[in-house]
Predict the 3D structure of the following.
Amino acid sequence: MYHAPYDSQFSLVCMDESNKQLVGEVHAPLPLAPGSSQIIDHENVRDGVADIFLEVEPLHGRCHAEITEQRTRKDWTMFVKGVLDECYPQAKKVRLVMDNLNTHSAASHYEAFEPEEVRRLARRLEIHYTPKHGSWLNVAEIELSALSGQCLNRRIPAIELMRKEVVSWATGSEQPKCHHRLALHNRGCPHQTETPLSEITSDTRYKVTDSQSFWSRSSVQTVFLDRDGVLNEKMPEGSFVSDWVHFHILPGVVEAIGRLNRAGLRVIVVSNQRGIALGLYSTSDVEIIHRNFQAVLRAQGAHVDGFYYCPHEKHQCNCRKPLSGLFERAVIEFPEITARNSVMIGDSLSDIEFGQRLGMLTVFVDGDPTRQKPGIEAAQKLANLHFRSLFEAVDHLTV
């Protein structure tokens, strides 16, 4: 669909939704001063959650977003009606790309409108759901990532202020149009200035031949790393690394992280720790593992900037990869992080989907072939690059 010629009568629109915690200050930040950066107190006040509905037209470059207090069927259908009647009144039909959520259906229109109006909206709407494990194909997810990094990567105390900031971001004259910012756009577009990530071939997955550093080309500033299977030996399926005794660092990992540090890159470890929810080990056990691993790194002149992990069971939170909660927690501590300047390195489908959904570059590493989870072939195809280990990835990419 993205390769089809632009047609204003049959507009291609990508839609997605997200949310943001409203956080206010207890103490006013100390402003910038010569020789000193802005100082923000860690103490804050939480004031609910605001929800974001965003649509982007990737073949044209326009973007529109609305902020609501909740995400119900009625909220979704009111947003879609606005897209049809206000954003694209001239279009005969709007081809809407979105995830297959329970609120994303024509039946939701009955929550707000009479049958006649529902039929009118349905006739102008052509819905295309992203496939299972393929929500990253929705360009709106990348646009949401850009919104989070460029506009929402700070404390915002009130929904009214958030509405003002988001509208300004989406419509402001300085906001770059999406077909300049995104790699997924129409082939042959006269504005295209970079090779789409989808055109990276299998021949480039094991070797980077360009003399210019991969990190420099991509403006990468932060490297997100999965833990088990990337940094340390992965346990057999159904078992977990529950203590430091079972944490066996893989060859070349300490040197690889040191090279990332020396290249000036921020290193963040993100991992799913379902064993905590199963009662097999505790958060204290995980913290001990991370402290000991950090000590090993520091003894060799290396370090990890942050460890973030999900302690929950499946489908019980928004922080279990491939969902974005761990990324959002990292952004709170490091507000300068954006998905556009980050790369995700992992050994599973959930790692690669985590990066793809946010709009990061993604690198798949093989790890132990006898202990890989299902979905490896799909992960290898989704990833932008593919190497045998973290050491090999860093060795090639920081040339």
Q: What stands out?
A: The first helix runs from residue 73 to 87.
